[in-house]
Amino acid sequence: MIKTLSNSKFLIPAMAILAMLATSAGFYISLKQSQPALGDSHKIEGLFWPNPKQINDFNTLDQMNKPFGLEQLKEKWSFIFFGYTHCPDVCPITMSVMNEVYKKLATQHDNLQVIFVSVDPERDTSEKLSQYVSYFNDTFIGLGGNKEKVDSLTKQIGVAYFLNKEEQTEEYLVDHSASIFIFDPKARFVGKLSAPHESSKIIKQFTEIKKFINAQN
Prior knowledge:
Layout: H1 2-34, E1 53-54, E2 60-62, E3 67-68, E4 77-83, H2 90-105, E5 112-118, H3 126-136, E6 141-144, H4 147-157, E7 161-163, E8 174-176, E9 180-183, E10 188-193, H5 199-216
Parallel strand pairs: 4-5, 5-6
Antiparallel strand pairs: 1-10, 2-3, 2-6, 4-9, 7-8, 9-10
Helix pairs in contact: 2-5
């Protein structure tokens, strides 16, 4: 009897501890299942998470020669592409693809904007930008100004470009990024879509990114 009683003194606390551990484990599993799976972010191509970059204000000019900065990125999903109007291939191809993307996505989303930023502001005047972006889509936005204004955005995103002016001609080429950068309605840099670009691929990537970001909010 004494032996049995002695064992029970240890058995009861032990059972209580096991019960507490089981309860805690169950609570942890329940809590984890009720939260969005942050680990799934690595499965979404192009998504920056859990640390999207919040950029500072910038001071470019749009194709109407009006100021365009951080405030104009808020409340919208923005696709930003850097190029120049004299670009012989990458830029017109990408802009054509983005026209297809925009037309398809705009039927389901009313807060989208496509932005073309010139990295050749010396040649790309507001008039040229207006003609260029409207050729692809009347709703597209063209940004420029001067080198300082353009760099107020490129340096924050990490976009490098180089003007090949060795021959000192007006037909120089510009080396630049071919990626498309995505900003969410909080004006956070949340994604990067690498070339080559296809409309179906961009739509799929954007849909996944948007769904994930919305779930976190």
